[in-house]
Design a protein that fits this description.
The protein is an alpha+beta fold. The protein has 4 helices and 2 strands. Helix content is 49%, strand content 16%. The protein is globular.
Length: 81
């Protein structure tokens, strides 16, 4: 789910989570009900030559560990910073 959310919405899921926190409660609830929206830490899109080719999703550690591993995995496959 983390990888699907990051790929579909073209942003890391930890950033989605931070964005959702800024919304009024009703709007946040609606946003989280959209298809494949994921607000858990650990999903990162893979970018190659300006295109999103997929994403990586990591679970099993703390949120911070999941983010760090997902960022490293995506960076090893990406051609962009």
């Amino acid at each position: 789910m983390k990888a699907k959310g990051a790929s579909r919405y073209r942003m890391a899921t930890h950033l989605t989570a931070e964005f959702v926190k800024t919304m009024p409660a009703g709007l946040a609830q609606h946003a989280l009900s959209l298809p494949e929206v994921c607000a858990f830490q650990g999903g990162v899109p893979i970018r190659v030559e300006g295109e999103i080719l997929g994403a990586v999703g990591v679970s099993g550690g703390s949120g911070e560990q999941d983010v760090a591993i997902a960022l490293a995995a995506a960076a090893s496959l990406s051609t962009e910073p």
